[in-house]
Model the fold of this input.
Amino acid sequence: MLTEERHQAILRLLDQQSVVKSQELSTILNASESTIRRDLQELENAELLERVHGGAKRILNLGFEQDMTEKTVKNTQEKQIIASLAAQFVHDGDVIYLDAGSTTLEMLPFLSGKTITVVTNSVHHAAKLGDLNINTVILGGSLKLSTKAITGATGMEQLSHFRFNKVFMGMNGAHLEFGLTTPDPEEAALKRLAIAQAEEAYVLIDQTKLNKVTFTKVTELEDVIILTNHCSPELFEQFQKKTTIKEAIQ
Done:
């Protein structure tokens, strides 16, 4: 097994168990304990786990969120694959909500030429939708400088009057036990309301965020359809027991 394959296998096990023992990893991955120790050290250096006596545990950065510039350059290909899948559910005549986020941003080129109305809480999204000549409504409220997302009571009040055929949401974590989460309580409230106002709600989330948890709960898994680029067979089966999950064909 290649080093990268072992690293991914270790992270998948941590997603499922939170803590893993070095001896257990050695058996599962058919690798020496010295190799496993080296793997764990490399993953700790990359801040993907924390080594503990006899093994490792996942790092939970519950309140951390990257700014929009950092998000847009991370996992770009995966986000484009998910965005392409999401756009297939948008049809002429639809009124949709596009949540602020780097993955929903990747949907915009795939919406070109569609006769739709889009409501968004993102300054980035609204500007690009305008360039595509798509009928767009942007919510009012407070501007979150790091992500250029609109939040707050004004946007909530405006959003409460709208209904949508579909909403497309970004999310920081989709966890089998804790549901859908995001670091910012104000953004969580806006996401929760948008989902409640929709006939169908889609969450666009790449594989690195599956079975992760952050600070604020948005809603339960069963309230949405999850769109992702890849999910291990074991995790896919577990998610299917909670909600509908669709993988993009790559």
Remarks:
- Residues 169 and 203 are 5 Å apart (CA to CA).
